[in-house]
Design goal:
Catalytic activity: 2-succinylbenzoyl-CoA + H(+) = 1,4-dihydroxy-2-naphthoyl-CoA + H2O
Bound molecules: ligand LTTK3YTO
Strand content: 15-25%
CATH class of the largest domain: Alpha Beta
Number of strands: 13
InterPro entries: ClpP/crotonase-like_dom_sf (IPR029045), DHNA-CoA_synthase_MenB (IPR010198), Enoyl-CoA_hyd/isom_CS (IPR018376), Enoyl-CoA_hydra/iso (IPR001753), Enoyl-CoA_hydra_C (IPR014748)
Function: Converts o-succinylbenzoyl-CoA (OSB-CoA) to 1,4-dihydroxy-2-naphthoyl-CoA (DHNA-CoA).
Family: Belongs to the enoyl-CoA hydratase/isomerase family. MenB subfamily.
Number of domains: 2
Strand order of the largest sheet: 1-2-3-4-8-10-13
CATH topology of the largest domain: 2-enoyl-CoA Hydratase, Chain A, domain 1
Order of helices and strands: EEEHEEEEHEEHEEHHHEHEHHHH
Keywords: Lyase, Membrane, Menaquinone biosynthesis, Transmembrane, Transmembrane helix
Length: 277
């Protein structure tokens, strides 16, 4: 059965929908293979923040509009090269930006599961976007690759180091040094994507995965995501993981007793609480 999506807010460069516990963000610039300009990124960031704040939402699907008029599909072809200037990508306000890095950090740290649904090209900064998502489901027409050293850019952050964690050092170096294109089948083989389905089934598969996740324990999933990140993300990974520990502690009777005692200017009843082994 087709999912019934409700528009959350109308944007220029993206579409933003929700259905039940699922939010769907669609980059909507098919004539540019869904390349992002700063405005696109501002809109993506706002939608992601909304999804993070919405307590009903557990899963975000990130995808690209298509096919384009020439029949081709794209998830995202990276930064919009027509607005690349000195020091970053420049649109309306004339300020050079690499603000996609903010979106990468938000996807990485938000305590909801972000699934990339990739039909067609995931290239350059668009490839990094799918890499950073928790899961990737690819259509059988998916095309994956990096272009930086071919056109004067590189992503030395998650786009290279985390990629190497996914596919191994040799393969990650091959992807960046040679700038080749890889099919969805090759991406599956190297552990870059979770599943490949016919393009017509891509969204339905994403919704099915999302609905499975939505049956699981939100707190367990939240802690798992931060635990997966913590191993790799240094101090900010530890911050996320321990932030969850603090949140869970705040929910205990023990923390509530100590907090109430301080407010009520009395001695806390520490004896009520065990020193567990
Ligand atoms: C994606 C392609 C392989 C598709 O090839 P195809 O032959 O199918 O299509 P066309 O090449 O004819 O493209 C159709 C149409 O789309 C326009 N277009 C495609 N990609 C872009 C783009 N990235 N920016 C702007 N426009 C794009 C293309 O010009 C055509 O328009 P017409 O009007 O001429 O019809 C192929 O298109 C391709 O390889 N595209 C370029 C990919 C690319 O160079 N991406 C940028 C890489 S750098 C990057 O993304 C990046 C961004 C950041 O913000 C960073 C931040 C921090 C660190 C690093 C960053 C970073 O590396």
């Amino acid at each position: 059965m087709a999912t019934s999506w409700k528009t959350v807010k109308k944007y220029t460069d993206i579409q933003y929908h929700k259905s039940g516990g699922i939010a769907r963000i669609t980059i909507n610039r098919p004539e540019k293979r869904n390349a992002f300009r700063p405005q696109t990124v501002v809109e993506m960031h706002e939608a992601l923040l909304d999804a993070r704040e919405d307590q009903k939402i557990g899963v975000v699907l990130l995808t690209g509009a298509g096919p384009a008029k020439d029949g081709k599909y794209a998830f995202c072809a990276g930064g919009d090269q027509s607005v690349r200037g000195h020091g970053g990508y420049i649109d309306g306000d004339g300020v050079p930006r690499l603000n996609i890095l903010d979106v990468q950090k938000l996807i990485r740290s938000m305590p909801k599961i972000v699934i990339a649904l990739v039909a067609g090209y995931a290239i350059g900064g668009g490839h990094v976007l799918h890499v950073i998502c928790d899961l990737t489901i690819a259509a059988d027409n998916g095309v994956f690759g990096q272009v930086g050293p071919k056109m004067g850019s590189f992503d030395g952050g998650f786009g290279s180091s985390y990629l190497a964690r996914l596919v191994g050092q040799k393969k990650a170096r091959e992807i960046w040094y040679l700038c080749r294109h890889y099919s969805a089948a090759e991406a599956l083989e190297m552990g870059l994507v979770n599943k490949v389905v016919p393009v017509a089934q891509l969204e339905a598969e994403g919704v099915a995965w999302a609905n499975d996740i939505l049956q699981r324990s939100p707190l367990a999933i939240r802690c798992l995501k931060s635990a997966f990140n913590a191993e790799l993300d240094g101090q900010s990974g530890i911050q996320e993981l321990s932030g969850n520990a603090t949140m869970l502690y705040y929910m205990t009777e023990e923390a509530k007793e100590f907090s109430s005692a301080q407010r009520e200017k009395r001695k806390p009843n520490a004896q009520k609480f065990p020193w567990l082994p």
